[in-house]
Amino acid sequence: MSRIHELPKVELHVHIEGTLEPDLVLELAADAGITLPYPDAEALRGRYVFADLQSFLDIYYENLDVLRRRHDFARLAYEYAVRALAGGVVHAEVFFDPQAHRSRGVPMADVVGGLVDGFARARTEFGFTADLIACFLRDRPAAEAAETLDELVAVDAPIIGVGLDSAEVGNPASPFADVFARAADLGLRRVAHAGEEAGPESIRGAIDHLGVDRIDHGIRSVDDPDLLAELVATRMPLTVCPLSNVCLQAVSDLASHPLPDLLSAGAHVTLNSDDPAYFGGYLDDNFTAVAEQFGLDDETLARLARNSVVASFLPASRQREIIDRIDGWQAASTESRW
Ligand SMILES: Nc1ncnc2[nH]cnc12
Ligand SMILES: [Zn+2]
Q: Which residue positions does UniProt flag as site: Important for catalytic activity (predicted)?
């Protein structure tokens, strides 16, 4: 258990904007001559006490204002890769919110180009790989999502998929059916946040209306045994984010998190960090927290890591290579017990 950071991991649910650390907010603001309403990074971090998803999103969108130039996005991507690798992440499928930058007048080519630059540098320097998934904001009109997809196509954005995020309650998936169908026609994969704050009906909506390949969060599936059984039968991956759920009060504390129920039901659970700069931990921290809370052994941790590989959109040959490394980690942990 002590070698969690060495367990090879794939991350499937991380918002690149949610990796914007307070120090980097301050640095980018100083660079761009932006005056911030707090004196230092500690004061900013002090504001990270959230009652729910919306109270987090308010600060998350406010902080984005420091991301303005192509090299800001490159820096953000690179810094995430450095930190993720230190925790054992070898590949990530990374969300970004194009509308949150487009609405501030940042050219789409700079957003995408910067992220590509930052991840290319990480790949060259230390072999970390990343793919991009563009998320549509579900609290904005579906027509805006459609325009955003057109713009992504126009700049030839190298995205592998589309997602749906932002405020879930009161913003169902159904209006986004057409834009997700267009994404499917373009050969893109589809994922959606569902069952984070809203109930099982939100998960049902993402499956029925958007044809998703994975459900982001999905923890509220435990409230509907029929739905959970269906998720298990169809091997629908759930990208679960335990520390996020605690911080946003989707669960009252880690001990009450439904992870053990999902695991014992046989759900295809993966572990993820969501917005690690805000929720007190990167992917290794999420692994460590649930391992300690629920007494998960190395075999279970390796199973969770393998689940992410299988649920990823990586080609089979790369999946095999990472799974071999996970098997090696597990074998070494068994040997060290003798
Ligand atoms: N946890 C989350 N849920 C919904 N939208 C988000 N955008 C960034 N983080 C999010
Ligand atoms: Zn998320």
A: 217
